Amino acid sequence: MGTTTLEGVGVRSIKEIKEWLTMIRQWLSEPKNRNVLHRTLGTLCWMASLCFCSGDLYSQEQKVIVVVGAGGSDDYQQQFETWADNWKSAITSAGESGPDFVCIGLEDNPAEQNDLLRLKQALTNPGEGTAELWVVLIGHGTDDGKVSKFNLRGPDLSAVQLHEWLIDQKARTIVVNCASSSGGFVGKLKYPNRVVITATKSSAQRNFARFGEYLSAAIDDPAYDLDKDLQTSLLEAVVAASSQTQEFYLEETRLATELAMIDDNGDGKGTPSDWFQGTRAVKKSKANEPDGFVSNQVFLIRRGTEAKLTIEQRETREQLERELETLRQKKDALGEVNYYQSIEPVLLKLAKLYQSVGSEKSVDGQDSSLSETPASPDK
Question: Which strands, in side-by-side order, build the sheet including 62-68?
Fold first, then answer.
């Protein structure tokens, strides 16, 4: 979603902003609180008017490599090809402004070159200026208790190999492994500025994984755009796809043999997808920082304000939103007054950033100010 979050509210959602402002107005009704939040309220209104910007689709040096593994049977092969086509369709729908797209595993396979070598070459030379590199693995996986692998035509790809080929990348890397036994990739691929999504919670979940089917359909589906900012984040798509996967097993009255994992904080532990309600983790491990923040800033297709941000602006926005998230987690310790005083300067910086992107119209071409003006705190 890539939006500023206040108690889980994205500031690009008009409905949620109004709810947030209503809560603040109720708090302001107490005389002791009026002066404290007067300026913060104004900041939130300003943020609302700036964040609903229209924008042409604009690819920010993204590259997506989809790897289709060995199907093993015609039925599986056809399914994998369909999933790969879904990814391709999502990208090509953006036109020339969409990410660069490469597919490995569906072309003729000359004897002198195998798919493992093709992937290595693609990762070694992703292209000058690539700031975000996606690697999507569609197929079967194996794990013998020591080595986790993704099955290819010819030599298989191990998690260790993939990590070694990605380690020198300056770009943020997003690895999506839709295979069985893919959970073993989480720990092996841990690294700063890297997002790892797997279809299974552990390498022991060896049965055919269906998660990839649902994810390929959800990755740019506006139905899962929770904050209505015209784009679907990776986290939104993963949570939706995982929920649909679990529904499949319930409807078939079968024991679920897969549960998607999300690791985007670089600790290699991961967070089960069913720990999320919407885009916020409702369960947290005491041993690690919550996952989900980065994957909620990542979009296959960028639209609206997100499409207008430069690489530097996106990095600044992410840093400021991290500050807001940190403050949100400390709200009880800070107390309400100190909390609101602390978030105001961060909101001002974010507002100035969005203002620098610049647009006075909302996504529907109307004036972007809120239709419902909050009551004055002095009344």
Answer: 100-104, 62-68, 132-138, 172-177, 194-198, 261-263, 271-272
Architecture (CATH level 2) of domain 62-281: 3-Layer(aba) Sandwich (3.40)
Asked if 212 and 83 touch (Cβ cutoff 8 Å), the reply is: yes
DSSP one-letter string for 197-245:
EESSSSTT--SPP-HHHHHHHHTT-GGG-TT-SS--BHHHHHHHHHHHH
At 281 the pLDDT is 87
Confidence of residue 5 (pLDDT cuts 50, 70, 90): very low
Residue 297 identity (one-letter amino acid): Q
Crossing angle, helix 159-166 and helix 115-124, to 10 degrees?
A: 30
Q: Which residue has the tokens 């924008």?
A: 55
The domain ranges of the chain are: 5-54+311-357, 62-281
Give the full edge-to-edge strand order of the sheet including 157-158.
141-143, 148-150, 157-158
pTM of the model: 0.80
Taking residues 191-205, what's their average pLDDT?
Answer: 97
Looking at the chain, the number of H-run helices and the number of E-run strands are 12, 14
181: left (phi over 0), alpha (psi -120 to 50) or beta: left
